[in-house]
Amino acid sequence: MDHFVGIDLHSNNSYIAVIDTDNNRTFKKKARNNLSEIMKHLAPFEKQIKGIVVESTYNWYWLVDGLMDNGYQLHLANPSAIKQYEGLKHCDDITDAFHLANLLRLGILPEGYIYPKQERPVRDLLRKRMHLVQHRTAMILSFQNLITRNFGSKMHVTTTNKLTEEDLEDIFEYEYLILSAKASISTIHFLRSRIIPLEKAIEKAAKLKKEYQLLKTAPGIWTILALTIMLETGPIERFKKVGNYASYCRCVQSNRFSNSKSKGKGNRKNGNKYLSWAYVEAANHALWNYEYVKRYHQRKTAKTNNVVAIKAIAHKLARACYYIIRDQKEFDPLKAFA
Questions:
Q1: Residue ending a domain, choose from 97, 114, 131
Q2: Would you state the pLDDT for residue 85?
Q3: Same domain, yes or no: 248 and 130
Q4: Domain stop point among 66, 92, 114
Q5: Per-residue pLDDT for 267 more than 80?
Q6: Does one domain contain both 220 and 330?
Q7: Measured between alpha carbons, how far is 21 from 40 in angstroms, rounded to an integer?
């Protein structure tokens, strides 16, 4: 008789639940996050296990890779798409694990994408680069705010990046302001010194696949952003429609309406935050360098505001990139920004 396994994964332990084809509970056990220990509990059912479900948490790599290396069929559950019956009076790790196993048994499990093991290190390095870039941007904004508060004028980011700690003694009068400014400028330079080697390593290790080469024809997308989009998107075939991809990139609204009345909001964080960042970054670069994007931005800001306009550009770029990857055609500004 076939068996189905659900594993409710936590930071330091996992709850293992096994059911058969008739949904009879045949085994349950709480185990430490140790692959050997989990394998030991699964061993009696090894030949009967049809599939194993692991919830897609932040720490699933070691467990999924380990079980796959030992010949098990793995499924990654999408937690944001799984909803248990709201009338349940009591719910815990046991019910969660058995619920995962039962969804797999019924063939209705909302699955996440198990990213290829060999490509994850470069993708994670790109994520680290993004993390450092965001910190550097925060430091630049902090320093620019310091300038504005004390002098009533703005300093362009290009000028900020060229400043040295010695220059600050000529700009500020008071010792404490100089110390504050030096902390920002030294951090900006340090982060830049760490970001550049990462970019070089990424460009050396990762090459744009053929189907992603044409991404660089889209406005605002250069090599690093194209690599980010490629590694975060994966096979474009896993998105049935362009709307599914735009939603995955967090480029669509999460509002809920009924009879033209707001009925709350959906899960705004459902999707890939790294793709969301990449397309917003591309939108900002496109706004600086492409006249037709500037005109579209002006039309949108006249009706809404700058933030909504930037997100609208990001949405258009995400949709355009979906068709670029799928159809292998260059970016057409008339279709995207007519």
A1: 114
A2: 63
A3: no
A4: 114
A5: no
A6: yes
A7: 22
Parent domain of 30: 3-114
- Average pLDDT taken over every residue of the chain: 90
User: What does the block give as tokens for 239?
Assistant: 């998105």
Is the pLDDT reported for residue 75 higher than 90?
Answer: yes
If asked whether residues 322 and 243 sit together in one domain, one would say yes
Task: Let me know whether 190 and 224 are in one domain.
Answer: no
| Dihedral (Cα; 37, 38, 44, 46), 10-degree rounding | -130
Q: How many domains does the chain have?
A: 3
Within 56-110, strands assigned E span: 74-77
What value, to the nearest 5°, has the Cα angle with vertex 139 and ends 136 and 141? Answer: 110
The kind and range of the H/E element at 15 are strand 13-20
Residue 338: predicted pLDDT? 77
Using CA atoms of 10, 125, 254, 242 in order, give the dihedral in degrees to the nearest 10.
-120
Segment 148-169, tens digit of pLDDT: 999 998 899 899 999 999 999 9
- Strands (E) across 182-338 are located at 255-258, 261-265
Distance, in Å, from the CA atom of 49 to the CA atom of 175, rounded to the nearest integer, reads 69
Question: Does pLDDT of 231 surpass 80?
Answer: yes
First and final CA of the chain: distance in angstroms?
Answer: 59
Put simply, whether the predicted model's pTM sits higher than 0.90 gets the answer no
Q: Tell me what percent of the residues of the chain surpass a pLDDT of 90.
A: 76
Tell me, yes or no, whether 99 and 215 share the same domain. Answer: no
Please state whether beta strands 49-55 and 25-32 pair in parallel, antiparallel, or not at all (unpaired). Answer: unpaired
CATH code at position 101: 3.30.420.40
